[in-house]
Amino acid sequence: MNDMSETLIQTENLCKTFRSGKLETPVLFDINLHIRRGEFVAVMGPSGCGKSTLMHILGLMLSASSGRILLDGADAATLNETDRAKLRREKIGFVFQRFNLLPTVSAYQNIALAERIRRHRPDSRIQDVLDAVQMADRAHYKPGQLSIGQQQRIAIARAIVHKPAIVMADEPTGNLDSANAQNILDLFRKIHETGGMTIILITHSQMAAQAADRIIHLNDGRIEHG
Amino acid sequence: MLRLAWANLLHRKVRTALSILAVAIAITLLLILVGLSHGTLNDVSNRMQSVEAEIIVRDTNFDLGTLSGGKLWEKEINRFQEIKIDDEIAVRRVMPVFLGRMKLAGQSQNVFGVRPDDFPFFAGSRKLVAGKIFEDVESPHVILEKQEKQNTLDDTTLPVMSIIIDRKLAAAADMNVGDATHYGDLPAQIVGIVETGVAGRVFAPINMLRAANGIAAATCHMFFVKANPNFNTDQLQTLCENIKQTTKRDATLVANYGQIIKANFKTLIIFVNLVSVIALVISFLFILVTVYTSVLERSKEMAILQSLGAGRKLILSQTIHESLLICSTGSLLGIVFTFAARYLIETARPLMTVEIRLSWLLGAIAVGIVGGILSALYPAYVAWNHDPVEALSFE
Questions:
Q1: Do B121 and B242 have their domain in common?
Q2: What chain A residue is nearest to B302 in terms of C-alpha separation?
Q3: Where are the alpha helices (DSSP H) in A68-123?
Q4: pLDDT band at residue B107 using 50, 70 and 90 as cut-offs
Q5: Quick check: is B258 in a domain?
């Protein structure tokens, strides 16, 4: 079992400002977060409050303008592009609102490709994870041949196949009807309980956020409470 | 990653097929143009090697392409008899050649005007497969005077110019011994067919050929010099230099004749190379646009790969992979097209020689690969600089 008292993600006075020419758009202000290993956290807030930006920064897809991020002990500021990609590859799994599966290859190949990028040989883990998301019988379908709920299951399988320390899900139920949304949230709970992964769920939905153990409220780029 | 590159290319089948076809056509054009020009020149050069002579003498201003420039005088042959190398008579025989042109099998053919008793030296080991060696008139005047009086093709009193053609030309022109043709105003008849591989595809008696060209004087375009058979390469080279000094003419070893031809057709070769390069550049620009468009369309896919942990190098290699797949497939298809085109050309025009060398085929593949990488550079630069977060944010 993971040590729930161990801090996995920590931010100190994290700020993000987007710059386009002379125009500056501040998005995040002094974000101080502590997320423990094995926690299931929801970051909740209205559209445009900076949730996705926060997730991209925590997922090392985007750099902060100022402040500090410690990810499993690594200071993001000290990492170069290659190290960031390596950390992303090994410790993080992303799930997106629009699934973001590669349309030209099968569901199985989507997962296998992620494994190859992680320099893992595609093996029985793919079959196991497809079983876990109940998509084994659709493994050789291309994304366009799957329903949106099924596509999101494949996206989740791709994110967890390598048993990452952190799963970051950006509005994973945003494109789903309520029945499919509930199924996906149940799946996240199951993954959390059986796999012990740290899950960060970005959502604007109160219902989705209820699936998490802790809710962090974000409003206008600031943490209100959580 | 190669599998993903293939999947992406197959996802856009028509565009991929057109890109591959563009490369294939450019590679075919390159190989055929180079093969045709080199093939034709090398064929002529190789046929020259069959002559039982070691040195070719020409006027320094003579142009083989247009048969214009300075001529030689037959009386110059006497000078060769005096040359000695290491106290040995250096020259055993000097064979004058007057060159003309006539149309046979739908193509302009060089006609070698030679003395009848020199013909066996030009045939070398190739035998007459039908007919006999021609005869010549004593002097071009015989014909010229008759032509002046009775200038008509139907005049049966005009002497007929006997010609010998090689077997390949006979087949291409569908002609046999006894068949009639004409050289300019002069009636001509095929009297012999020689095995393929002799220096000229058409041989005619030298005086008749001179007369047919309106030349009364005993001039010619080349001397083929048969040297002392005991001479080694160094002595032949010395003889060559000696001939240059003695005659003030250009002398070259027959073995180096290919270089002379290539020097004479330098402009043609430059033109062919230029056309080939332009074709290649256009096709690779086409690939650049294809891969660039593909990169723009797939910025989201690249962002997904990055979210999975792919570094920029992997994104870069993905772009280059696709370009390389297009170009290498196109190059291989181009090689197939080249063999097909060669078959069609040599079937339709049997006298044309399209040379295909393994080194050229390997070169074409190398050109395809290098072109593929070059074509991918700018799209790869765009891919390298794209913003994954922005790409993931939009549909």
A1: yes
A2: A102
A3: 81-91, 107-117
A4: confident
A5: no
Minimal Cα distance from A53: which residue of B?
B389
Q: Are residues B199 and B166 in the same domain?
A: yes
Residues B242 and B353 in one domain: no
Rounded to two decimals, the ipTM of the complex is: 0.81
Query: For position A216, what pLDDT does the model report?
Result: 95
* Non-local CB neighbours of A125 within 8 Å, separated by 6+ positions: A115, A161, A162
Which residues share a beta bridge with B178? none
More confident residue, B358 or B368: B358
> Does B361 lie in the same domain as B278?
yes
Give the residue from A203, B169, B262, B217 showing the smallest Cα distance to A215: A203
Distance separating alpha carbons of residues B290 and B386, to the nearest angstrom: 18
* Gap between the Cα atoms of B31 and B337, Å rounded: 10
Return the residue of B nearest to A115 by Cα.
B308
Closest Cα in chain B, distance from residue A123 (Å): 17
CB–CB of A81 and B312 under 8 A?
yes
Would B387 be classed as within a structural domain? Answer: yes
The answer as to whether B55 is a domain residue is no
State residue A54's pLDDT score.
94
Same domain for B8 and B64, yes or no, is no
Let me know whether B281 and B348 are in one domain: yes
Looking at residue A4, what is its pLDDT? 56
Best to test chain B binding among A61, A140, A154, A168 (most B CBs inside 10 Å): A61
* Candidates B307, B317, B384, B392, partner chain A, best to mutate (most A CBs within 10 A): B307
Task: For chain B, give the mean pLDDT.
Answer: 85
In chain B, the residue whose alpha carbon lies closest to the alpha carbon of A109 is B4
Q: Do B308 and A59 touch (CB under 8 A)?
A: no
Contact state of B10 with A103 under an 8 Å Cβ cutoff: no
The answer on B141 and B237 residing in a single domain is yes
Q: Mean pLDDT, to the nearest integer, of A70-92?
A: 89
Any idea where the domains of chain A sit in the sequence? 7-225
Of B1, B10, B311, which is closest to A85 when you measure between CB atoms? Answer: B311
Nearest to A155 by CA among B7, B306, B311, B308: B308
Domain at A7-225, CATH from 2.40.37.20, 3.40.50.720, 3.40.50.300, 2.102.10.10: 3.40.50.300
Confidence of residue A1 (pLDDT cuts 50, 70, 90): very low
Print the domain residue range for B37: 2-42+267-393
Helix (H) / strand (E) element for B148: namely helix B140-149
The whole-number average pLDDT for the span B261-282 is 80
